Amino acid sequence: MSPRLIISALVVLLPFANGTARAEDSKEKAASVREEDGKHFDADGNPTFKIENGVVDWYTFSGYRRYHADCHVCHGPDGEGSSYAPALAKSMKNIDYGTFLSIVAEGRKNVGGGKESVMPAFGDNKNVYCYMDDLYIYLRARAVGAAPRGRPPKKADKPEAAKAQEASCMGG
């Protein structure tokens, strides 16, 4: 089964699992209430970050690295935006998990005001789709002001579950 098909199926099911689209995100809503194999989840079961004493969880750090490898060219360093694409550090406050997965996997095209903007689909790019949760977690932390600009100075060790998922997804 193709990764794009799997992601599309998840996107269709997530709104039913998590209720309606969330209102503006905040540090309180993004708070980790559960941890599973080093990955944190909020009260609604969405992936989230855990930052304590300046140490970010592995997934936030991985999201930072992946964002700056594949997304910052258009969306600017640290999600601050550019003349080419919006500031994700702002728009992510109003994008729920399912919508994020859908946009990244399928892309999006906006036409209005005499200009067109296109977000390409990354559902077939292993360097992106294998790390979509990591990207979401990092951008969510930036959006709610939990993660400052720049490379996190301290990170948690990579969990065994992250190593296994990466090997499985990347085919290694």
From TrEMBL:
Region (Disordered): 147-172
Gene3D superfamilies hit by this protein: Cytochrome c-like domain
Residue ranges of every copy of the Cytochrome c domain listed in the record: 40-143
A GO molecular-function annotation: heme binding
Chain intervals with Basic and acidic residues compositional bias: 154-163
UniProt keyword list: Heme, Iron, Metal-binding, Signal
Signal peptide (from-to): 1-23
Annotated protein name in UniProt: Cytochrome C
Organism expressing this protein natively: Sinorhizobium saheli
